[in-house]
Amino acid sequence: MNTMHALHEDLRGSGMALRMHYPALINPGWARRWPGFVVLAGLLGIYAIGLVVLEISPARIVNGLWRLADIVGMMLPPDPQTWSRFVIYLNALGQTLAIAFLGTLVAAILALPIGFLAARNVVASRILRLLTRRSLDTLRSVDTLIWALIWINVVGLGPFAGALAIMSSDFGAFGKLMSEAIEAADNKPVEGVLSVGGGKFDGVWFAILPQVLPVFASQILYYFESNTRSATIIGIVGAGGIGLQLSEQIRILEWQQVSFLILMVLVTVAVIDQVSARLRSAIIGRRR
Amino acid sequence: MHRLVPTPPEAQLAPLLNAYAGAIAAKRRQMVMGGAVLLMAVWIAAIGAEVDPVTWWNKLGNFFSYFDRLLTLDTGARVWTDPLEWFWGLKRWLRLLVETILIAYVGTLTGALIAFAACFAASRNLMPNGFWRGVVKRGLEFCRTVPEIVFALIFVASFGLGAFAGVLAVVIHTAGSLGKLFSEVVENIDMRPVEGAASTGGSWFAQVRFGALPQVLSNFASYGLLRFEINVRSAAVLGFVGAGGIGEDLITAIRKFYYADVSAMLLLVVLTVMTIDTLSTRLRHRLLAMENRT
Predict the structure, then answer these.
(1) Residues of B whose CB is below 8 A from A53
(2) What range does the domain containing A150 cover?
(3) Touching check for A145 and chain B: CB below 8 Å?
(4) pLDDT tens digits for chain A (288 residues)?
(5) What are the φ/ψ torsions at residue A176 (nearest 5 degrees)?
(6) At A136, which CATH number?
(7) Which domain holds residue B79?
(8) What is the ipTM of this complex?
(9) How many domains are there within chain A?
(10) CA dist A160 → A217, B216, B218 (Å)
(11) For residue A54, how far is the Cα from the chain centroid?
(12) Looking at the complex, does the CB of residue B63 fall below 8 Å from at least one CB of chain A?
């Protein structure tokens, strides 16, 4: 008992000693703390301004929540009501998958050569590289929905416009990813090819391409996953797929149908995620 | 000829060469099979998506002339010859842009706070109770799988038209995706500080506060910034369904063929998104450097 007490005292004593030895660590004065507080105050200040500008008030939140609870109540249970509707929805879902698949694939194929054009270790011309990069950035920063609206003006309403929209915005993303993968590639195989008398093209074909293809393949799968999600919504602006049905049903307030459609989307996305995770680990595993 | 590397005798070499040829053939067969499956999938998808290369080719001119029209004023002159006329609505558009950024900001911060509260309960090392961890994880998954704009549609129906519905949609989606990323960061921390806090009798909150939090904060901030970038992009289109921001004016202009307005607004959106991307990338690199230093 006595030893316990002594130990306790000892610990407390050492605590005091610690405090005296490292005052800056245990109690960093105002001088070290003020930048953190300023940042925090700034963040909260903008937040408060945002709440005011966007007219968010507790009354609106409470009122809306009641309505939301009402709607959620009306959504249950999810029910397509008739078989023919269910078939229509399944068709739309297939269309969504087709849009995502085609858009991703075509974007990837088109982006492959462009990626080389934007990579530092392949293209020496700085101007060409910067130009390619900027255009890719521009493509990327226009949202898929906006692309869908533009393509609808060109090829008319329907899933084809959707596939083209996914292709356009993904083209930018793939080009960037591809060029980064190429820049990260090991340069020693290229030197090897060059040292045995291969040309510049041989260097790219035999030394860089085998290195980047597995990375690229797994990125394509990843984008296919995320594009399935985007493809579910481009129908909202009229570019085909299940989004068209979804926005229609929300507009006419058929909440049971809405929840059923959301459920279909969730299940599909989960299945695609599973499949593509398997495929991705297989691809990456083969590389090792 | 004198060989530097001795070749094994023919009898010994033949099976090896055969095996090699077999392996190559098998690989080639696999490639052909894979290619065939891929082509089949493309074929089916093309039918499903009503792909029509002929229309596309015939109307491709439309695509380029669309951009041509985008860059033409009502007077018929090119847009850049008269910037004042081109950006006639600059004041209104800037206000809407600010609204868009604020939707993204308020949404990201609120969503990040929710994700922050949820992530410790969703990570294996700090929440040993499998049931509650599963509940939190499934909840986050639901929040991030349902597309933002679908939430926006539902919230517009319940909260009315306007920015508030957009903010809520961003909040939900951000909470879902950041919650996942945050909990992955937490699962990768060094557990020794947490054990240290536990061994001195610290409560669960003390363990998280003093053991886990200092390790993850800079990563969290970095992910939060990345999410903010993404949210600015999506907030720009939330207006398409009436959830506030510049999207409302943009879709009206596109639908009513106000070409010069469309290009002006698109330019503003692209510039804003790029600026925010650049700024936040810089900040993130700094944050990561800060973490490496400590």
Answers:
(1) 98-99, 102
(2) 81-287
(3) yes
(4) 455 565 555 555 556 666 677 766 666 667 777 777 888 898 899 888 888 888 888 888 888 888 888 888 888 887 777 888 888 888 888 889 888 998 999 999 888 888 888 777 777 777 888 888 888 888 887 888 888 888 888 888 888 888 889 999 888 888 888 888 888 888 888 888 888 888 888 888 888 888 888 888 888 888 888 888 888 888 888 888 888 888 888 888 888 888 888 888 888 888 888 888 888 787 766 544
(5) -65, -50
(6) 1.10.3720.10
(7) 52-86
(8) 0.77
(9) 1
(10) 24, 44, 43
(11) 26
(12) yes
